[in-house]
Amino acid sequence: MTSEAQSSVIRRLDESLINRIAAGEIIHRPSSALKELLENALDAGSTSIKITAKEGGLKMLQIQDNGSGIHKADLPVLCERFTTSKIKKFGDLAALTTYGFRGEALASISHVAHLSVVTKTKSDSCAWRACYNDGVLSPPKPGQTSEPKPCAGNDGTLLTVEDLFYNVPTRLASLRSGADEYKRILDVVTQYAVHNPAVSFQCKKTGQAQSDVTTPGGASVLQVIGLLYGSSLSKELLHVPIDKQKPIEKGSSPWEADAYISNPNYQSKRFTLLLFINHRLVESSRIKRAMEAVYTGMLPKGACPFVYLSLLLDPKDVDPNVHPTKREVHFLNEEAIIEIISDKLQTSLATQSSSRTFETQTLLTGGTLDESSKRPSKRRRIEDGDDETIPLDAPRKIYSNHKVRTSLHDRTLEEWMPVGGTSAGDGGQGERPIEVEDSAEAGNAQVEAPVPSRSKEISESVCRLTSVLELRSEVLVGQHRGMTEIIKEHIFVGIADYERCLSLIQHETKLYLVNHAALAYVTRR
Question: pTM, whole model, 2 decimals?
Answer without folding.
Answer: 0.64
